[in-house]
C-alpha cells in the first residue's frame, strides 16, 4: 500500500475495539490463532469500517442503509494518497492541502468514504455527486452527523444518470481533482454472476435470494449500461466539456482488460497526458487512470494561482 496509508500492515484489533467497542462482538481467532473477523459476514465488515473510521478519521457516526456498498477503507485510502501524489507533481513535489484543493467525487455513494478520508488526510474540500436518492440522503446524514465534514463536503443530486459532469459542475467552478469508482458490471445478471463466483471463492453464505455480499452494493453501484468500459467511455467524452475547469480527472479501473479501451477513448478526446498508477492490496491489483487537458506550463500556472496563496 501507499506509504502514507495508515492501514499498512495488519489490523490492530485491540486498538480498534478500544475505539469502537461494538467491533468486539465480531473479533474471533483465525486459523493461525490471530485476532480477525469473518470477512464473509456483512455485519462484521460494517463494524470493522466503523472502527477504522473512528480510529483513523475521527468519524464517530457512520452507517450505510441495508444493501448499500460498504467499501474496504484501506483500498479507498490508497486511491486518495496516490491521487495526492499526482497533484504534487504539479506543485514542486509537495502535496497541496487544506481548502484550496477542491475535489469532485463522481458517485459518492451512501458511504461518503472518499470525502471522509480526503478531508481528514489533507483537509481538502469535496463535492460528491449521486444519482440514487437513498444513497444521497445517507451521505447527507453522515456529513451532518460529523462536524469535521460540515462546510467541507457538499452533496449534489445528479438527476440524469447518463450525465457525468453536466448539472454537477457549476458555471465557472473549478476542481483540482476528479475521483471516481465506476460500476464494474454491464447488467444485473453479470453482477449476480460475479457475486456467485466471489461467493464460491471466499465461502460467503448462500441465501435463497443469492449470495450474501460482505461489502454489499445496489444496482447503481455495481452495474450500468456498458459496464465499466461503457461508463468510462461516457466519462472521458464528457470530460472534454469541462477540460479547462478541471486539473486532473481520474478513475479507478477494476479490470485490466478495460485499459486499452480507456487509452483509446482518451486519445480520441485529445488528452495530451495520461497517467496509470498501479495499486496492490494483498493479491489484488487495481489501477488508477488519470488524464488532463492542460499542458505542463498550464498546470504550473494552475498550482501557483490556486495553491500558493
From TrEMBL:
Pfam families assigned to the protein according to its UniProt record, in alphabetical order: Methyltransf_10
Cellular localisation: Cytoplasm
SUPFAM superfamilies given in the database record: S-adenosyl-L-methionine-dependent methyltransferases
Enzyme class name: transferase
Annotated EC: 2.1.1.181
Cross-referenced InterPro entries: DNA_methylase_N6_adenine_CS, METTL16/RlmF, rRNA_lsu_MeTfrase_F, SAM-dependent_MTases_sf
Transmembrane segments: none
Predominant location category: cytoplasm
Function, as annotated: Specifically methylates the adenine in position 1618 of 23S rRNA.
Name of the molecule in the record: Ribosomal RNA large subunit methyltransferase F
Native source species: Hymenobacter actinosclerus
Gene coding for it: rlmF
Amino acid at each position: 500500500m501507499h506509504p502514507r496509508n495508515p492501514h499498512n500492515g495488519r489490523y490492530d484489533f485491540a486498538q480498534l475495539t478500544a475505539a469502537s467497542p461494538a467491533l468486539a462482538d465480531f473479533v474471533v481467532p483465525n486459523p493461525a490463532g490471530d485476532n480477525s473477523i469473518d470477512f464473509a459476514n456483512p455485519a462484521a465488515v460494517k463494524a470493522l469500517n466503523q472502527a477504522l473510521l473512528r480510529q483513523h478519521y475521527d468519524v464517530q457516526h457512520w452507517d450505510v442503509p441495508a444493501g448499500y456498498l460498504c467499501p474496504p477503507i484501506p483500498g479507498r485510502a490508497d486511491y486518495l494518497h496516490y491521487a495526492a501524489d499526482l497533484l504534487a507533481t504539479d506543485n514542486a513535489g509537495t502535496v497541496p492541502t487544506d481548502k484550496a484543493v477542491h475535489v469532485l467525487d463522481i458517485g459518492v455513494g451512501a458511504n461518503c468514504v472518499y470525502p471522509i478520508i480526503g478531508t481528514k488526510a489533507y483537509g481538502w474540500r469535496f463535492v460528491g455527486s449521486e444519482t440514487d436518492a437513498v444513497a444521497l440522503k445517507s451521505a447527507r446524514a453522515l456529513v451532518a452527523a460529523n462536524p469535521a465534514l460540515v462546510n467541507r463536503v457538499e452533496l449534489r443530486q445528479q438527476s440524469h444518470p447518463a450525465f457525468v459532469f453536466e448539472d454537477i459542475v457549476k458555471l465557472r467552478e473549478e476542481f483540482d481533482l476528479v475521483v471516481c469508482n465506476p460500476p464494474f458490471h454491464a447488467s444485473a445478471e453479470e453482477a449476480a454472476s460475479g457475486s456467485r463466483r466471489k461467493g464460491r471463492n471466499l465461502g460467503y453464505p448462500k441465501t435463497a435470494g443469492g449470495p450474501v455480499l460482505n461489502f454489499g452494493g445496489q444496482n447503481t453501484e455495481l452495474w450500468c449500461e456498458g459496464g465499466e468500459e461503457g461508463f468510462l467511455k461516457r466519462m472521458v467524452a464528457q470530460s472534454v466539456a469541462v477540460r479547462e475547469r478541471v486539473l486532473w480527472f481520474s478513475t479507478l479501473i477494476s479490470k485490466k482488460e478495460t485499459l486499452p479501451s480507456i487509452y483509446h477513448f482518451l486519445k480520441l478526446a485529445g488528452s495530451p497526458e495520461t497517467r496509470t498508477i498501479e495499486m496492490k492490496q494483498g493479491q489484488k491489483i487495481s489501477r488508477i487512470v488519470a488524464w488532463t487537458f492542460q499542458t505542463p506550463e498550464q498546470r504550473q500556472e494552475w498550482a501557483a494561482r490556486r495553491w500558493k496563496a
